[in-house]
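Issue 218. Parser rejects a valid record. Input:
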Amino acid sequence: MLTAAIGRYPHTTALLDGKVGDPRLDLRFADVKPISRAFAPMVRDLRYDVSEMAIATFLQAKAYGKDIVLLPIVLAARFQEAALLCLASSAIRGPADLAGKRIGVRAYSQTTGVWLRGVLHDQHGISPEQIRWITFEDAHVAEYRDPPWAERAPIGAELLGLLHAGDVDAIVVGNEVPDDPAFRTVFPDPAAAGTAFWNLHHLIPVNHLVTIRGATLRKQPNLAAQLIDLFGNSKAASANAPPELLIGRATLQPAIELAVRYTSEQGLLPGPFTADEVWAGLPSDIS
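Output the parser choked on:
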């Protein structure tokens, strides 16, 4: 039996519901909601054999020597610009106005924040340290400590509440963007900003992928290929699986390389880290 923590999406429903499977594998899925609650137990305690994981969490875990292997299976990917919000009444008119401002984010290591900071730096000339990042929790990887340009929000504070009160100038949200007329996006046209990102990098930022405990993979070296087939079959069984949910090491490499650069530039890793190190432990026949 293998334990697994995987979020429910249109493209994983067939797998979670047993409509696709592999007779050689006995996968038992933990009920973890939201799925982000599985990340810390996985990187700190290796609680599951297989776990969904945010790319920033994985890169930190790998850089800090955790025995976790990345599988080239994307479960969530999107352009990030719609997740950066300010008050509708704010004087902020675009990302260039964020220098010197305070931005609230669940954690400095949150993957959406990593991608957005990369956009602010690459396309708008604003480095992470030019902004004061107001955080609410630690990174999933226990060894990591936030950089000097991040500070903890007051105890009991909430992300939306800080923005409503004007205690921060903007916030980074996750997949759930609040439907509240009091807020608007910092990017005047998030879709156009996503197109600009694509024109610059020719990729869609990846948020969540699949990881496997290294010890489990060493005992069952064929497991990586089996899981890739399973997730691929589950995606194929979905009528509305987004095309950006890539499967394959070669197709993912550009996004992985950019994520490594961003996490390194933003002070999220303990030292030099290469894109090739990301795949350490993955069987060489996985392309």
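Fixed in the parser; the record now loads. Residues 81-201 form a domain with the D-Maltodextrin-Binding Protein; domain 2 fold (CATH 3.40.190.10).
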